[in-house]
Amino acid sequence: MAPLISIDAIHRHTSNRLDENAIGGRSLAGIVGDGPSHYSKSPALWNAAFRHLAMNAVYLAFDVDDRRVRDLLRVLRDSEQFIGINVTVPHKVRVLDFLDDLNAGAARIHAVNTVVRTAHGRLIGYNTDGDGFIDSLLLPTPDAQHGFMQSLDGIDVLLLGAGGAARAVAFHVSDHIGKGKLIISNRTVAAAQSLADEIDKLGRQALAIDEGSISTWAPKAGLIINSTTKGQGGIRKLGNGMATMLAPYSALAPAHPPVLTANLGDRFEAQWNEAARSDIETNNRRSETIAATIPAATRFYDLIYHPEETVFLRHGRASGHNTRNGKSMIVRQAVIAFCKRICQPQLAQLGKDNDATAAEVAGVMFRAW
């Protein structure tokens, strides 16, 4: 048996502090990002599932900056206690450099949200975001009889963003829209074009547009998806001691959030809001105008779940559209990561590696939100 994981060794590579007794002799899973301890629902979901299945395991959040991802993974992989992690922004692409292998789905997307440690200490990357997203669209939540959409076949989809989460959504949506078109908008058009080219090579229809063209294409879409960080709550650290905020913005329109020094402390939000006021007003006004032109049947979906209703979703709801935030996707991708990836060997040992357990876990996770 490899040595127990040292909390002190973990703390050398994280900016958040863990309870000294957080792990003990239990199996360890967790989530790695720039600040998941401040907002991630994953620990509550996974720990509820562990309790429900009487598994001797714990799930923790690790706040890690870009320079420390490799070192944290080295610490974790050295112990057999470690069974796997989820990866969130901004490390879904960066983590690729530190893995031993990728499954075909993650390799296609070129982004990872789940890492499994094998019995031989190898780290294998997967991506459950895309399948989780599709499930969140088509499968009903526990409080509903029907899914958010009946089908994607034949509809045009407007995807806002071209980053790691967007890639997973783009490939999986393109698998389901048949003769429909995927329109990808991004602040940097080159990134949208690169992703569209990859989708085109699969024989699907994809088009890259700039943010100024959203007003033209949004009224033609049956589903609009925000996979950008516009609307995300909290202060976003950018490195080099700088930070910004994105919660007041809608993804339907361009934004130019000011960047300020992060060492302003309690004064940061007030000073940022003052500096951003004019840009926020311009962004929101444009977003409301666009939302009003979009047919009522079009659905608005935001991968963000903090806050529960982003400006993008608020404008969608106010203009008469059905909306959904990222809660269902987080739960659905977590169920896949739990049952089919990270905990699959343990579930097999318990005789619970089956669809019935996956349905149980989904119910537990929805209730634990």
Note the main attributes of this structure.
alpha/beta; 15 strands; 369 residues; six-stranded parallel β-sheet
How does this model look, in words?
With 369 residues, this protein is α/β, with parallel strands linked by helices. 38% of the residues lie in helices and 18% in strands. It has helices spanning 7-11, 42-52, 69-77, 104-109, 129-138, 164-176, 189-201, 214-217, 268-293, 311-318, 327-342, 344-349, 355-368; strands spanning 27-33, 57-63, 82-87, 101-102, 114-117, 123-126, 157-160, 181-185, 205-209, 223-226, 235-239, 242-245, 260-261, 299-302, 323-324. It has a six-stranded mixed sheet with strand order 2-1-3-5-6-4, sandwiched between helices. It has a six-stranded parallel sheet with strand order 9-8-7-10-14-15, sandwiched between helices. The mean pLDDT is 95.
Fold topology:
Layout: H1 7-11, E1 27-33, H2 42-52, E2 57-63, H3 69-77, E3 82-87, E4 101-102, H4 104-109, E5 114-117, E6 123-126, H5 129-138, E7 157-160, H6 164-176, E8 181-185, H7 189-201, E9 205-209, H8 214-217, E10 223-226, E11 235-239, E12 242-245, E13 260-261, H9 268-293, E14 299-302, H10 311-318, E15 323-324, H11 327-342, H12 344-349, H13 355-368
Distance between the termini: 35 Å
User: How many H/I helices?
Assistant: 13
Quantity of strands, as a count: 15
Largest sheet: 6 strands, mixed
Percent range for helical residues?
25-40%
Beta-strand fraction estimate: 15-25%
